[in-house]
Amino acid sequence: IKMAGDSRFPDVDTDGSEKSEEMEIVVNVGGVRQVFYGDNLNQYPETRLAELVNCLSGGYDSIFSLCDDYDPGKREFYFDRDPDAFKCIIDVYYFGEIHMKKGICPICFKNEMEFWKVDLKFLDDCCKAHLSEKKEELEEIARRVQLILDDLGVDASESRWKRCQKCIWKFLEKPESSYPARVIAVLSFLFILISSVVMCVGTIPDLQVVDAEGNRMEHPTLDSIETACIGWFTMEYVLRLISSPNKLHFALSFMNIVDVLAILPFYVSLTLTHLGAKLMELSNVQQAVQALRIMRIARIFKLARHSSGLQTLTYALKRSFKELGLLLMYLAVGIFVFSALGYTMEQSHPETLFKSIPQSFWWAIITMTTVGYGDIYPKTTLGKLNAAISFLCGVIAIALPIHPIINNFVRYYNKQRVLETAAKHELELMELNSAEGKATGSRNELEDLSREGKEGPFYSSRIKVSHSDTFIHLLSEEKHHRTRLQSCK
């Protein structure tokens, strides 16, 4: 490699006689040669290629601050960068925008743009969306890695209560942290199932008992099982609330609101039973208690806390609001049209079941959704033809948006599995790198590296950050320079 001040280098032209607009320079990026002219490069003077045009008058120090090597005879600048990304970046000088080729890692492409000093605003919107998605994935991986590192690390400066609070939180919220935590998760799951079964069995008339006033009520044994389940749910919720690191976020979480709705009806009905009779009539108290008992069905949603499949379904439906809206709109239009046509066509029949258009809505709903209860049906020929058309249109209206919804579910489910695998892979690389460092380096050197790592926002002093191709920049603020041989696959 030629160095600045080498006698083999001829003198650099410093008189500025050649205009930069007419200058021709050759750039060699990873073995790929490109010829540029000054008038094109000077359109964006802040970029690295534009600086090459004016760096010759600054001597070799200025030249080698911009490139890896330089051949003064050919006026050829050498860069050890990714040539595929460079071919995309130079489009800004000709078209004013940049498109990222398929197969290039968005994060690596962003780093290449930063190296060539090209602003991200020149990246096309479609490519920006891909870059944002990749950033979100890396942030999610970093968040998962950080959660695992926090669980592994023990801060000696924390008080005993803080350490106890963290242990309770891990014990109740993270079944994968230990074997007893898995046992507690299984017990919680069983209590939810038992409570749901008791709620259903308690409505069987043969298993109910009659009180002194002649009203049917649940069997005392089932009532005791229900009380035990509610006691478990209450204890679990209180412990999780006390040990949560952010109690406001915990209270406003959707699943925790479901937990409250599953527990609250029991205590409200208990209060009304013992105190409400003094304030209102007994019949009103019984009606209020019955209404609150119906709210116990909310506890079945607690199963989502222990089922990754139900959680994935929930997130997939949240991401499919547009498709669900289209489905409802198609059905609403069809229901209105076919119910109106059915009402009009059936008026000529003396025994018509279509008394009004709003009543016909029910017939249109069960017909378009292919349920067909048969309580309302057409009796005229035109009415039957209208029913057949509404049936076919209903099948088509439901089938069209279903495929995107299924795709969203599969994409999100696969993405979660990939993120989980990537987080585990990153941790394995960290542990491997840390073990190698302990075998080859001194203990003082590792302590220095740990102190440097603590300056980053996401780092644990127990594990050293990996320098692999899957390196997550969010886990450390160190700068890692890549060569073209390490370009993203």
TrEMBL record:
GO CC list: voltage-gated potassium channel complex
Cited Gene3D superfamilies: 1.10.287.70, Potassium Channel Kv1.1, Chain A, Voltage-gated potassium channels. Chain C
Compartments, as annotated in UniProt: Cell membrane
Gene Ontology biological process terms in this record: action potential; protein homooligomerization
Residues passing through the membrane, by range: 183-204, 248-270, 324-341, 385-406
Membrane topology label: Multi-pass membrane protein
Potassium channel tetramerisation-type BTB domain span: 25-126
Family: Belongs to the potassium channel family. F (TC 1.A.1.2) subfamily. Kv5.1/KCNF1 sub-subfamily.
Role of this protein: Regulatory alpha-subunit of the voltage-gated potassium (Kv) channel which, when coassembled with KCNB1 or KCNB2, can modulate their expression and their gating kinetics by acting on deactivation upon repolarization and inactivation during maintained depolarization. Accelerates inactivation but has relatively little effect on deactivation. Coexpression with KCNB1 or KCNB2 markedly slows inactivation.
Quaternary assembly: Heterotetramer with KCNB1 or KCNB2.
Protein name: Voltage-gated potassium channel regulatory subunit KCNF1
Biological source species: Myiagra hebetior
Organism taxonomic ancestry: Eukaryota, Metazoa, Chordata, Craniata, Vertebrata
UniProt gene name: Kcnf1
